[in-house]
Amino acid sequence: MKKNLKKMVGVSCFVVLGVMLLVLCFGVTAGARNRMMRAERQKAYLEKKEIVVREIRDYLGSQGYQNSGVTLTRREYGENEEEYRLQVHHGRMEHLSKEELDALAETLAGYAKGFGSDAIMQVSFR
């Protein structure tokens, strides 16, 4: 009886350790996959950001705002929820009316489509 009890305890410990090892392996694999996906998303964002900022600067230059300061940032709220913020700096813009700034902001917000059809960009001027 004692022999069977020792054998059952030994087998149980072996099974528990095996299960814990499997859980640990799957956890490490899932974590690594998640980090890789996040790094790929960040790389894709930086590539798109470079293109969008260049297009915005080109557009502003064609409108007489050469050498505008353009800052584009992204904030992630979840797996697929992002918010883009564009800040534009140019001394001549402070002389524009609210209507002119709103029209310019609407035009510039259209460049968010470079990040996807449902992307929304908040635009502000300084």
Would you report the number of β strands? 3
Radius of gyration from CA coordinates? 27 Å
- The number of helical elements comes to 2
CATH architecture of the domain at 39-126, by name, is 2-Layer Sandwich
Topology order in helix (H) and strand (E) letters = HEEHE
Assign the structural class, choosing from mainly alpha, mainly beta, alpha/beta, alpha+beta, or little secondary structure.
alpha+beta
The CATH superfamily of the domain at 39-126 turns out to be Cation efflux protein, cytoplasmic domain
Largest sheet: 3 strands, mixed
Low-confidence stretches: none
CATH topology term of the domain at 39-126: Alpha-Beta Plaits
CATH C-level class of the domain at 39-126:
Alpha Beta
Q: Provide the β-strand percentage band.
A: 15-25%
The N- and C-terminal alpha carbons lie at a distance of: 84 Å
Strand order of the largest sheet: 1-2-3
Shape: rod-shaped
